[in-house]
Amino acid sequence: MIPSSINRCLQGENSFFITPRPPWCQPVDQPAEPLNNLTPVERLTTNSPKVSTLNGANCERITMPNSNTVILIDVAIKKYTASGSASYVKVLDFGCGKGNLVRDLSSLGYDAYGCDIVTFWEEESNTEKSRLSRISRSPYRLPYEDNTFHVVVSTSVMEHAQNKKECFNEIHRVLKKGGYAMHLYPGKWYLPFEPHIYVPFVNMFWPNCSKGWLSLWARFGIRNEFQKGMSWKEVVEANARYCEHGLSYWSNKKYRKLSQEIYGNYHAPMTFYIKHSGGKAARFLRGIPPKALWGWVLGNIRMNFIVVRKLPD
4-189+247-309 belongs to which homologous superfamily? Predict the structure, then answer.
């Protein structure tokens, strides 16, 4: 049987409003050593707390707000806002899940908030729930006033959002004039396989993910860790619903076009990403020229990082 939380979403509960990742891709914190005596930077660079277990599908490689992600976002915010103090920067984590990134950014001194379609943080004890808010589905609206945030970030959210134009418009609305939106997401041509269900090329085929292709890999035994024990037919049905309601892979060209339409600008600082990302591919390529070429490659077959600015009047 498909777990009830997965089944509800696969039946379309979040269809067109998966903003961000579906409920079965949320992290579950593991027991960790006490961190009360650590400095904010030490909290981000220590191996604890480690987030490694997922409720329904494997998103760990690309969706966890881990220390590498927080450090990348922290450096990017400082670079683009040129702020001398984090406490003067109001940040929104768009698609905050259980609020881990909000917690980590707050520990660095940022005035951080988060929002999501579903209140995944309800039963969490290590999040400041007053900083987390639910997104209205109909009409689709972020729960904040106009011109509220200096920076809005999302990490591995956009590959799930099936209402990207609404998302971009709302983010633009809540940004202060001159503020920045930063989005980190897996590229359309991500290799070697779709990183949630492990089926090769699904992200490339999307939205045309045939059951024949899903069946081939299910028969070969491809499962994510929460599909163990399911028959190949059950896996195919679960993955087919997930592809329909839980994925929305766009090419970088489409992101550029939408960004230009709403913001009037688009920047993919992939050389910056290679320099500061903790990902294995970025670290491997860090000392290999030309970085501009490798940045373009990474942005297409691994993770892409884009930055857009709300222009002053």
Answer: Vaccinia Virus protein VP39 (3.40.50.150)
